Amino acid sequence: MDLVLEGLWNLAGAVGQLFLQPFYYISIIMVLLLYRRQVILERRLFHVRLNNWLTQTWRTVLGGLLAGICVSLIGAFIGMTLTVEGILCIWAVAIVLLLIRVRYLCLAYSVGLLGVIQFVLDRFPSFVGSGWGAEVIRAVRELNIPALLCLVGLLHLAEGLLVRWQGASFAGPLFFEGKRGRLVGGYQMQSLWPVPLLLLIPAHTTGGVLPWTPLFGGDAWQEGFGLVALPIIIGFSEMTSGMLPKVKARLTSNRLMVYGLAVLALALLSHWWGWLLLPAALVSFLAHEGLVWFSRFEEQEASPLFVNPAGGLKVLAILPGSPAQEMGIQAGETISKVNGVPVPTKEEMHAALRMNPAFCKLEVLNLKGELKFLQRAIYAGEHHQLGVILAPDEKAPVAVRLQPLSLLQLLKPRRSEAGARGGKRRPAGRGGDTASQPPSAG
Fold it and tell me: Taking a C-beta distance cutoff of 8 angstroms, is the pair 309, 335 a contact?
């Protein structure tokens, strides 16, 4: 009973500590800025809002909370030594990496780099520094890197599950320049999850002792336990023009989970064989970066899916609650006829819809290449194009220009777009807004 009461007391203290730390609120603000920027981009490209940034934010906060609970429960059996100074070191490195590129705001990079720094410092035990530098060096030396790498592996397993669960629903359609300067349709899949962790650590208390010995155990656990709050942020960013969002999300999820298992295995082995600590730390961020570059290469080699075929119009996206959604039209399908009239161009589709403004009949090729017939009454005030966003043609007024997403673009999205709009539009139809460069995970 005393153990339960002490556990509840420590839990209350850790939760209070979590909400007193600014890092958790910073991560939620980052999520808000990311989705706000996505909505601005959608309005610029399609003159409509496909997603609600407040709803998206709450969904990711909830997903991150569930991930934090699960990882915290598993972490109770792992055990780690983590001080407040150690938490500050992790966040300091993460913020520096954030200033370089937003996708570097990932525990895999910060813990991996701290592991390399600790390995170098351990080669020079006599080097202690002076002043505040000495405190930083001491905090880095005391970090339990194998345990933190285990945490990185667990978080990427959780991230893989979150991507599978929520990744496709956060996909935003866009137009961008493909091979040979041709405009193609695609999706930007981007999300961040603020994850509040409550980590079980050994502490000098007069309370109860755990009834089990954590994996990273030791004599320190015989003197009591405590809880420490560690708010972090995980996320992914992918761009796809050759796959449907659900397919891309499932593929990314599988790769993240394989990566998480690999880091977890290396972290556990480095606990028993110390010489594996440096390889484990290097794999933490180098393999992560490898996933990014491999996915980018894969997209460059893939044939674009969202281009208009001869004699039809490819569907890029469907507006929520639109006639097209009610009719069952899906992204990736091809509209071949409207009211019995072939529609090889958008102008001809608009003309065919005006033939009977109160009712429409469609002939649509589904994803398997099979023809299906759809029909529906059209009511006043409904979207003039049935709520269908079509793949771009050569007359598309604007497209995104891919570039690495910076912190400035999150803070001032309209300013970054304005810088991209200047100048006359080239014949192939380029140059409008900016989007973060794909892809990233973690």
Answer: no
- Containing 204, the helix (H) or strand (E) segment is none
Which residues are within 8 A (CB) of 76 and not within 5 positions of it... i.e. 6 or more apart? 200, 214
How far apart are alpha carbons 302 and 296 in whole angstroms?
A: 10
Write down the residue that tokens 């909370």 correspond to. 65
Over residues 307-347, the pLDDT tens digits come to 999 889 999 999 888 899 999 999 999 999 999 999 999 99
How far is 426 from 442, CA to CA, in rounded Å?
A: 36
> pLDDT: is 181 or 304 the higher one?
304
442 Cβ neighbours under 8 A, 6+ residues apart: 106, 107, 108, 156, 159, 234, 235, 236, 256, 259, 288, 291
Asked if residues 175 and 400 have their Cβ atoms less than 8 Å apart, the reply is yes
Q: What is the CA radius of gyration of the chain?
A: 26
The whole-number average pLDDT for the span 243-258 is 94
As given in the structure block, the two tokens for residue 137 are 């060096």
Whole-angstrom Cα distance, residue 346 to residue 389? 11
Instruction: Dump pLDDT digits (tens) for 425-441.
Output: 333 333 333 344 333 34
59 or 84: which leads in pLDDT: 59
Q: What is the dihedral of CA 219, 207, 199, 195, to 10 degrees?
A: 180
CB 277 within 8 A of CB 313: no
Cα torsion through 324, 325, 331, 334, rounded to 10:
-30
Quote the CA–CA distance of 146 and 82 in Å, as a whole number. Answer: 12
pLDDT digits (tens, 9 = 90+) for 349-358: 999 998 888 8
304: Cβ contacts below 8 Å, ≥ 6 apart:
178, 179, 182, 184, 185, 186, 241, 242
Token pair, residue 36, equals: 């706000």
CB 263 within 8 A of CB 108: yes
Enter the DSSP assignment of 306: B
Which tokens hold the place of 215?
A: 């994996």
What pLDDT, on a 0 to 100 scale, did the predictor assign at position 412?
Answer: 60
Side chain identity at 334, as an amino acid letter?
Answer: T
At residue 2, the 3 state secondary structure works out as helix
CA 300, 306, 307, 311 dihedral sign is: positive
**Amino acid identity, position 226:** G
